[in-house]
Amino acid sequence: MKKKGAYAVIFDMDGVIVDSEPVYRLWNQELYRQLKISVPEEIKLQLIGGSIKRKWQLIKEHCGLSQTVEELIQYQYESFQGKECCFKDIQFPAVRPLIESLKSNGVRIALASSSDRERINRVVTDCGLAHLFDVVVSGEEFADSKPDPEIFLQTAKRLGQAPAQCIVIEDSTNGLLAATRAGMKKVGVKHPSIPMDLSLADITIDSLEQLSPTILGEMV
């Protein structure tokens, strides 16, 4: 195994920490019905891992919506208000053991998600993981979201680690492209029901159970 501090691990949140993508798909389907639009599967896949702003830019362009992007974002916030999800119930069971194992081996850990800070805080609090992350970064801090690499570059900077010594764990094409552009190593996590293109990953896995400090350390 690499010596302590030789590398850092950056986790995505949705689809890696919690199995939230199916939940959001259901909420979004209801939202699209309200707007009387049909969003094809190829567009839906492009949205995964990106910000809410990028989401509505793509949908507006594809569907020819008359509302502004800002109006559509506000409409989503209002539509989703009151919808509840217990993130602890959809947390992937291998997350905590992996993070604790990495921490015990001196590996610094970060969370870098395109989600807004409020939702990130809710997820890590519900799941009891907040104290385990050395750095937490939200996509709302940046003008451009994944696949832009800035979120990962800033995360590496806050970790005090060179990008080449960072390993990103992602489930989306957008996230893997951002990590590639940042010059980082990548683990692609497959989802059983959402067929994402993970070809940019250095390794692909079905579950975080397949990872360990030794396996990750051998990547850098």
TrEMBL record:
Transmembrane segments: none annotated. It holds the Pfam family Hydrolase. It comes from the Bacteria. SUPFAM superfamilies: HAD-like (SSF56784). Gene3D superfamilies: HAD superfamily/HAD-like, Putative phosphatase, domain 2. PANTHER family: 2-DEOXYGLUCOSE-6-PHOSPHATE PHOSPHATASE 2, PSEUDOURIDINE-5'-PHOSPHATASE. This is HAD family phosphatase.
